[in-house]
Predict the 3D structure of the following.
Amino acid sequence: MAFDLTKSIRYVKGVGERRARLFEKLGIADVGALLRFYPRIYQDWSHPLKIREAPLDTPCCVAAKVVVPPTEHIARSGMKIYKATVSDGQDEMEITIFNSKYAAARLKRGEEYLFYGKVSGSFLIREMTSPEFEKAGAARYIRPIYRQTKGLTTKIIEGIIRAQLKEAKGALPDPIPAYLREKYKLPALYDALCGIHFPKTWQDVTEARRRLIFEELLILQLALQSKKIQGKRENSARVTQNYAEEFASLLPFTLTGAQKRCIDEAISDMMGDTPMSRLLQGDVGSGKTAVAAALCYTVAKNGYQAAIMVPTEILAEQHYAFFKKLEDKTKLNTALLTGSLTLSEKRRIKEALKSGQIDLVVGTHALITSDVAFKSLGLVVTDEQHRFGVSQRGALATKGENPHTLVMSATPIPRTLALIIYGDLDISILDELPPGRQQVKTYIITGDLRQRCFNFIKKHIHEGRQAFIVCPLIEDSEDTELISAVKYAEELERGPFSGYKTGLLHGQMKASEKEQVMRAFLNREIDLLVSTTVIETGIDVPNATVMVVENAERFGLSQLHQLRGRVGRGKHQSYCILISDAKGEDTLRRLEVMRSTTDGFIIAEQDLSLRGPGEFFGNRQHGLPELKIANLATDMRVLKEAQRVSIWILENDPALEKQEHKELSTAVNSLFSKLIE
């Protein structure tokens, strides 16, 4: 009988109602999640060192006998401190224990113990403060350390996992079929879980990690590939004629080679047997809107309607203005649908969409309300897609019969990572900027040059330009010196920028308030906008020429690049000034990347290697599950192998119906259901 991985954590021996709530805080609701709750780090108690061999300020295990039992000392604060002396026969070390008479009493003269902690002092005088310790004969193993919550220690978690693994022996279903385990020399799931939780050697950890990472990425790839296959429905809006060249001739500028390539890739898809489903990825200013416009024009000329959904009303208005300028030449009937329109305007537009009088509509979330219907929706474009949930992106597509979909993103992502996040989409990349576009000059300064920076901003304001200052926090916090946007804006308005028109924008404001501030900035009613990262995307102000980022070390490279992209959109030279007093080598290296390049894809690769994938996976709106053990910054080779294997499996067993794929199919279906929620 198979071991039940779906059993609620509260019914596991040693858990109960109270602990179940604590486990749920850690994201553990059932036995399956418990066994996949991997150790955060390990403590190596397996090879205790001599006192002389112990590295300073590095966690390690030392074996020694108590030669002077603990004596009590009272600190000035009233805290009780217990000090003991231990020896390995050659050298001595002082053990210090704070405020724990019980712990001190466990140390008996003449007994040998293993002490785990950081050794401080010099080679002559060694000390270990607040160590963990066990009798020498009982604790020689590599100990797992888990993420904890108050009331649920790592030892409690360790004990419950150990008991469940004991129960699961010989009955644990394995998602990876035997032929794959044999081919890639992977341990069975039970052995891998024992190796990751309770390794006897570091080789056990290595082998277990390799197996579990491969499994996690294989299941993810199979789920995404299955989603892609299921999305390949009949092309109900087949494009029979390519109007890209005709559209290009109507533009007041020349398309870049990259724009032409991306347009051709998309139209080729739209002429095929299944609907286009494509991600258009391009850096700030690479011309994604023109590509989308060419596709909308082609779809409309083939007799279908197109819809473009964006996250803010201002962005919708800016897109709409672009299409409206071309309306006389394209002869397309274009409309704007946003929440702030009057009821009569909304009713008129919705009726025209339903009757087919409107060829192209640009709008916000208003497009996915239940009363919006199209006569023949052929193309759905979602801009700044990371601002929408997966379900919102899909909601617009359901208003047509298998329409083509184009997802646009101005956040450069390394291609391999994009294949993970957007595994259900084909990818087009705009890797060429239009000619003549000025690069934003980037400078890194320390806080003592802040006043010179303010004078620089004033100079630009006097010339009729505008500026941004971005802060990492919204309100002041007692435990941090980071600059607060709210307090900072008040101080600037009273001090250096007294007499100037300043504004404040942050994520806790109501949507209508944010729209009002952004509109005022766009209309030049505000000279200086103090903001949090809410302006990272979705606002286009060609007159803004200076972007200042306070505490720049607090931001990821990709985020800094997006902030820099808010300026340099007009004809005037623009500047990005990063203010940071950080001294760390890693931080300075990251900021130097920003100064040395404006290529978003290079920056994204650097961000992935320096900070890991959290910068890209931090936003849960992409709909992907959290990776439990795989690290996309270090496990790319395994990812590529998993992709190859997943494609091969689906070519030979598209529905995962073969007996050897039974458990794999169960795991994929479980994940797939989460991907489409």
Remarks:
- The chain has a mean pLDDT of 86.
- The two ends are 31 Å apart (CA to CA).
